[in-house]
Amino acid sequence: GLKFVSKNRRERVVAIADELSHTEEYDIITLQELWVYTDFEYVRESVAKYLPYAKFFYSGALGAGLAILSRFPIVATEIQPYSLNGAPIDVAGGDWFVGKAAASVIILHPILKEVQVFNTHLYAKGGEDGPEHNRAHRLVNAWEFAKLARRAAELGRYVIAAGDFNSIPTTLPMTVIREHADLKDSWLVTHPFSNTPSDATPSPQEAIDDFGVTADSPINSYSAGKGLDATARRFCGKRLDYIFYRQPHSYNSAELPVLHCKESRVMFTHEVPGTPFSYSDHFGLKSVLQIQTPGALPSSSDAVFPPESQTAAWSTQSSEPSEISQACITKMTQALSSCYRFSKSRAQKELALFVLCLMLLITIAVASTWFPYPWLNPIFIIFAVFLTWLGTTMLYEGYVYGQWECNALMNVVEELEVYAQGLELQSSRYQ
């Protein structure tokens, strides 16, 4: 939804708002890439009759693009920009300028009490193939997101986390999120065999219905005819969008209601009525979370979900927190260390280019006083302006951003090393 850039932006925003306004089945809606505040206002006003609470989040130069709408009162909000979001020189990608982040609200639910709802959009570039350090920035995003979700549960809150994670389910960033934050994937709960490799390529509709494909689908007008990678071609798209949930970490878990996903499906797969384009380049995802109470059913005055979601079913919850595996920590550390070495090398080359630009500028300034042809002066001026821009950019990229990236990578590497040592100490203490 970038202004002046995104195709059919206004028509799509109106269509999405219209679709959402004609149903009251949603309790929470999370939106990504909603950059323009007036677009958010339009959506908010369209659904205000049944989702009266909303928050638009700000981050970076262009905003986070994240918004949350809720049926339940919002009592606190927070946004945590990720420490790495690509490079400022990658203008076409734009991740650095928008300041991708983990946004959250705390809602007050009549049965669950405090629920922290996260909405995020992870770094896009890197794909799934090639060395793991290609996805170092996304790995840092995943680690920082997992820490936030874990901390929310440790504070006694239920957690719901949704967004565009730009990662297929089998990748390392998703492993980090599942293991460290102990989040349940609502799609896998309702489609337990969707991660099982298949010898046959599914049809586009089967990929959506059975495998939860939300992006790069041939059915989507913004993906059709687009050059896709091998994974997207093999599975007729990718599952990049998720809704996670988990219980609060509590030693009295037997007394708490339990969340369980009873339905999850891909939405907004059709084209906007009367147009040849889709609602978005990603489909929507809907999950229905059932509240299972350990005791008697809530009274009718407390019921906020449909009657079928108020059940007396009960399942015990482990009080032991989930821990990220040593294999995952090792793989992450290796990837981030490789990226650190690559970043140092790139920064040195950029600083060398800055020195070269500076030397050329000095040469031009000296030589121009001796050059006998005045008509060449405008060419020298234009060349000098270009060198000035290039040199300044390389100085910023090589020194400021280079140090920034290296420091952020080293922070996470050292966090992982300390965390691994802590797990070893705890393990030896209880042996």
Automatic annotation (TrEMBL):
GO molecular function, one term: endonuclease activity
Pathway in which the depicted protein is active: Sphingolipid metabolism; Lipid metabolism; sphingolipid metabolism
Residues annotated as domain Endonuclease/exonuclease/phosphatase: 14-255
Pfam families: Exo_endo_phos
Location of the protein in the cell: Membrane
Main location: membrane
Transmembrane segments: 351-373, 379-401
Homology family: Belongs to the neutral sphingomyelinase family.
Name of this chain's protein: Endonuclease/exonuclease/phosphatase
